[in-house]
Design a protein that fits this description.
- With 184 residues, the chain is an alpha+beta fold.
- The chain has a single domain, classed as Hotdog Thioesterase (Thiol Ester Dehydrase, Chain A, Roll), CATH 3.10.129.10.
- It has 5 helices and 6 strands, in the order αβααβββββαα.
- Strands 1, 2, 3, 4, 5 and 6 form a 6-stranded antiparallel beta sheet that branches.
- 25% of the residues are buried.
- The model has no long low-confidence stretch (mean pLDDT 93).
Length: 184
């Protein structure tokens, strides 16, 4: 089940936190609970994505994006993600999460998040491609940035993220199903 109570807790916790510039790093802390585990006793990969949501919500709240979305009746959509899982997160491990916007283009914002374990060891990293939407579709990122009071150009895109964006641009959509063989 989606961690609705944790989401509410994060939104309440950061509702009066110091505001953050659009490119600022939001740091949040989480615990891997027993109900977050998979059958191998580590943080479930699906629950990892849900916990990453918590960090993005806090970041959006502190940058003013959450209030802007409500005011404009806009929503957020995820248009892609790339995750690296490198170290196991076990029950009751404390997780420090860092969330930050690293780049935006005409349609999407790119948010990097990392989960750190005790001692600063990076367990997971994710790059999200996200868009702001209204009833007509995508809202241009320049319009969103301007509404947030951000008038400068986007930051330079890190090479690793630019390479992922380029790979996504050539990935076929919809996927080619013609070569599949049905078994069973």
């Amino acid at each position: 089940m989606y961690p609705f109570l944790r989401t509410v807790k994060e939104l309440i916790k950061y509702r009066k936190a110091m505001s953050l510039p659009i490119g600022g790093v939001h740091v949040s802390h989480h615990i891997c609970w027993p109900w977050d585990l998979d059958m191998w006793g580590e943080l479930n990969n699906g629950r990892t994505l849900s916990i990453f949501d918590l960090g993005r919500f806090g970041w959006a709240q502190r940058t003013g994006l959450m209030a802007l979305l409500r005011k404009q009746k806009w929503g957020l959509t995820i248009a892609g993600a790339s995750v690296r899982y490198r170290h196991r997160i076990r029950v009751f491990n404390l997780i420090e999460m860092r969330s930050r916007l690293i780049y935006w283009d005409e349609k999407f914002v790119y948010i990097e998040q990392i989960m750190l374990l005790k001692g600063g060891r990076c367990a997971n990293q994710i790059l999200y491609r996200s868009g702001v939407v209204d009833s007509n579709g995508m809202v241009p990122t320049t319009q969103v940035a301007k509404a947030l009071g951000h008038t400068t150009e986007p930051p330079d895109c890190p090479k690793w993220a630019a390479d992922w964006i380029a790979a996504e641009d050539v990935r076929p959509w919809p996927p080619d199903l013609a070569g599949e063989v049905e078994v069973g």
